[in-house]
Amino acid sequence: MRHLNVAVVAALAAVLWAAPAAALQGVTDTEIVLGSHQPLSGPVATWGTAVANGLRMRADEANDAGGINGRKIRLIIEDTGYQQDKAAQAGDKLLERDKIFAMVGGLGTPMNMVILPRQMEKGVPNLFPFTAAQEMYEPLHKYKFSSALPYYNQARAMVSYFAKTKGYKKFASLYQDDDFGLNVVKGVRDQVKAMKLELVSETTYKRGAREFGSQIAQMKAAGAEAVILGTIIAETIGAKVEARKAGWTVDMGVTTAGFTSEVAELAKGASDGLYGTGQVDIPYEDTAKGDTKKWVERYKAKFNTAPTVQALLGYGSMDIAVEGLKRAGKDLTADSLSKALEGIKNFRSFTNEAPVTFSAENHLGVPEKEGIILAQVKGTRWQRVQVISY
To answer: How far is CA 279 from CA 31, 139, 299, 348, in A?
Structure first.
């Protein structure tokens, strides 16, 4: 675990790294085969499609620039539909038939949890998955790397913000009934305990749920002053709309999973006032500046549509992967890539608020308590409030 002392972590790493290296796959003299699993269909397809575009865009740019140490990237993306059984099938195809060298930006905590064991067994690195779950970098493993601001830390920071700035003492949490949701509610529990506050209600929902009346009624009856959501896009909107129907004007905050332009736009004003946390601002076309603005223009030219924050994050994940592959050199193996990534220090990109740094003891590239952007929906757009911590 990240919170174990250095000696224990070092001992664990030694055991993990002493295992025999798996046979190299997915690398030829001219090609590096990378894979990704995305929900290109199903309830969170807006996440998956945009992330896939971002991944492809950065891979294409690397190839157009001559490739990586003489090799071109071939990116294979499989649809999971945000279902664990389909994720298992997608993972098997990528690992066994396509024989990918590494997985990049795989989306969804439950989906990653299904694929990861087999992936680690085969020695296929898991790079910068689209889940901010702690399991993506804990326990330390030489082939597991994350660049996502943990849901756990985002939840703790939101509780702290509401308690310190608004004086709230009673909190509730509505979260998806799986590993994703558990990461959020654990953060709520720990911060409430640390600040001697009250967690007056915890309530869950199943993936794909559309009705939240009973959960909202429960949290309202418990007297919650703020609600921390472990929800994605439709569920975030649904919870906020249901609260409005009940005449409940409670403050709600959602993590990166629901911090998307769709939550503000599709709700058509119903999500006004919602708080959200993330690691980069929403890249609105008319307000983007600097490198982000240039990227928005390139993205629109390539895909003939304005980008979302999901696409920006997808691009950022592949950007770090490309940097690691370059540093690994011509003699590319899973181990040489792992060592190369561990050598990245203060890698700055417009796709992250905070710089990315890895080490042999830390495979979470972003600071846990820094670079947490707090934003709020105003009408149909998100506006940054401030950077928060706990």
So the answer is: 32, 23, 20, 13
